[in-house]
Design brief:
Strand order of the largest sheet: 1-4-2-3
Helix content: 25-40%
Number of domains: 1
Shape: globular
Number of strands: 4
Number of helices: 4
Length: 122
């Protein structure tokens, strides 16, 4: 029998990693039109994380990581009336493309090569 190890990460732990690493609001559950409860997001990091093909992850929507990092998270967006709207903007509209985020975290040495699955529970 053949088996493989898949590292499971809770959505809360993933969000904390992203928020602490980049100092930006982020909620993986809220991306891509909001993930359903009890869903998961699989991805794989190959041994050479410096290779652009080193990450197998959902490409999805979102903005480039560069654009996400260049925007000030305290800067209001056009039409904003309430403070809570800014957090919702970052979580539901202005989030980085998932594969770029995974790639950058791997390049920073924060994710080792292997197979992963982010578990969504809310």
């Amino acid at each position: 029998m053949k088996s493989k190890t898949i590292q499971e990460i809770s959505m809360d732990d993933w969000d904390e990693l992203v928020q602490k690493t980049y100092n930006r609001p982020y909620s993986v559950q809220q991306t891509e039109g909001c993930y359903e409860n009890e869903s998961s997001i699989p991805f794989r990091i190959h041994g050479n994380e410096k290779d652009t093909g080193a990450v197998d992850a959902h490409r999805g929507s979102g903005v480039s990581l560069k654009e996400w990092l260049e925007r000030d998270p305290t800067e209001p967006f056009e039409g904003q009336r309430h403070d809570w709207e800014l957090t919702m903007f970052w979580e539901q509209t202005f989030y980085p493309r998932f594969h770029e985020l995974v790639y950058d975290l791997a390049c920073r040495g924060l994710l080792a090569p292997g197979e992963y699955r982010i578990q969504i529970y809310w």
